[in-house]
Design goal:
The chain is mainly beta. 2% of the residues lie in helices and 47% in strands. The chain has two helices and 36 strands. The strands form nine sheets. The protein has a five-stranded antiparallel sheet with strand order 1-14-13-12-11. Strands 4, 5, 7, 8 and 9 form a five-stranded antiparallel sheet that branches. This is Exo-alpha-sialidase.
Length: 487
């Protein structure tokens, strides 16, 4: 059993998060915090909270911003006694870095209290911005400074809940953020931090909300539950013990959790990039069990990638597989449809691999099933079956033959049999639309999506407007594909 605190998994106050992640003596030195940034075209919306106990009745607040490193600042009064709120700035110059903070008067002091300075860059962003982190913003540097691992659910009360973790290579990679929309994605607000929480997948089961994640990169596989729509969380239960980058450990992404044959199933990998590859498996639990009881979970032995499987790519590729989708074939087989790292292979893109599970023996390892043609196999993709259309659907980062590393074209694809896929349409395409940044700087990737009536709703790990690179994204964005079955 792994617990973050005696009472739960969630932390609202960045000061408490900082102490938990860094040390008990660590401090931001302020009760004022900018909780969410949403830069747009010539604009910024910033959400803030004052965690001081006497914030509401006694303090007057203002927002200050300036160009990065500048001396001339603009101050916007926010009023007295609110303790939290949102402020929107307009008239900004796209492509320019700015910094901003929240100010509050201090009793007995002529100097105001300041939140930590946050960086942002305005510019056009497709979709609706849920959250943003500038690549040189170290506010959450103990975990990282990049948005990753999108996940999204529609809650029973009709609201949307989205999450992302905070990533950067060789940093702590241990914190996730939750955001809520009560108006179908038009506006979003901060809910909670989850710590330690990385690579997390939000999902509903029997009307209850769960998060399946690791504690950090290759850390323990954890599951926690919220009974109030994400406001508070149980202490997480450990399903698989922590590993390490050096020795290997659990690896995942926000992959589908499906019910089949009386059990819940989801894909998990084991290995590390340091070791050069990941073995593939599924974890499962009886659908009627207490999901927070670790003894109810079954972890099958992990199957290594084998170059001798028929149909695998030639060349020197040995990176293998990761981030698999548990999915049921039209004839009832339970398979794990996996991202296939064909970099350096022949061909070097356009293939995915299916491994088969025995749903009656969840303790048995996967077996090789087949290699299939597949668009967008070089980045994480999510596959769901849609009963109304009798098709499987996914959103993939498709590539062109001369740019196999790109993730700046997002395509909607479908299949009637899970083996033969067609492109329905490009949903986001900045390769053909003349976007000024090159393909190494723009990414629409790691899409998590749900079908919602006639529409697809999705969250994207989006890199644009000065991201470090396409991989280390700076935005979590929300999008809708209307009437997707008719496209």
């Amino acid at each position: 059993m792994s617990q973050t605190t005696a009472t739960g998994w969630n932390i609202a106050n960045p000061e408490q998060l900082y102490k938990a992640a860094v040390s008990d003596s660590a401090s931001y030195g302020t009760t004022l915090h900018l909780m969410r940034l949403a830069p747009g075209e010539g604009s910024l919306t910033a959400d803030w909270i004052d965690f001081a106990e006497d914030a509401v009745p006694h303090r007057e607040y203002s927002l200050e911003y300036r160009t990065r490193g500048g001396t001339d600042a603009t101050v916007i009064p926010l009023g007295r006694g609110r303790g939290s709120g949102a402020a929107t700035i307009t008239g900004l110059t796209d492509g320019t870095d700015y910094e901003l903070c929240i100010l509050a008067e201090q009793a007995g002091s002529p100097e105001p209290e300041r939140s930590p300075w946050r960086l942002f860059r305005p510019g056009h962003v497709p979709g609706t911005v849920i959250n943003y982190i500038h690549p040189e913003d170290y506010t959450y540097g103990f975990s990282g400074r990049s948005v990753a691992s999108p996940s999204i659910v529609r809650l029973p009360d009709g609201s949307l809940l989205a999450s992302h973790d905070i990533f950067w290579g060789n940093e702590g990679q241990n914190t996730s953020m939750l955001f809520r929309s009560r108006d179908d994605g038009a506006t979003w607000s901060f809910v909670q931090f989850l710590y330690p929480c990385f690579w997390g997948k939000l999902f509903l089961h029997r009307g209850r909300l769960y998060m399946l994640a690791t504690s950090t990169e290759y850390g323990a596989l954890l599951i926690g539950r919220s009974d109030d729509g994400g406001e508070t969380w149980s202490a997480p239960t450990e399903i698989i013990a922590a590993g390490s980058q050096k020795a290997g450990g659990p690896h995942k992404a926000p992959m589908p959790v499906i019910e089949h044959n009386g059990r819940l199933w989801t894909g998990i990998d084991y290995g590390s990039w340091t070791l050069g590859s990941h073995a593939s498996g599924l974890v499962s639990v009886p659908a009627d069990a207490d999901l927070l009881d670790s003894s109810q979970w079954t972890v099958m032995p992990f199957l290594p990638y084998d170059l001798e499987w028929p149909g695998t790519v030639g060349g020197t590729n040995r990176a293998g597989l990761l981030e698999g989708n548990a999915v049921v074939t039209p004839d009832g087989k339970l398979v794990n449809l996996l991202r296939y790292q064909t970099n350096g292979g022949n061909p070097d893109h356009g293939r995915a691999i299916m491994l088969q599970a025995d749903p009656d023996r969840p303790e048995q390892p996967l077996t090789f099933y087949k290699v299939i043609p597949f668009y967008g196999n070089l980045s994480k993709f999510t596959v769901y079956y849609d009963l109304d259309s009798a098709c499987y659907w996914s959103l993939v980062s498709r590539v062109k033959p001369d740019k196999t590393g790109q993730r700046n074209i997002l395509a909607l694809v479908r299949s009637a049999d899970l083996e033969h896929w067609e492109i329905v349409q490009d949903v986001l395409n900045y390769e053909d639309n003349g976007w000024p940044e090159d393909f190494k700087k723009v990414g629409f990737q790691y899409i998590d999506w749900i079908s919602d009536g006639d529409d697809i709703l999705f969250a994207s790990r989006t890199a644009i407007n000065g991201a470090y690179n396409f991989h280390n994204a700076n935005y979590l964005t929300y999008h809708k594909i209307a009437n997707f079955r008719s496209l």
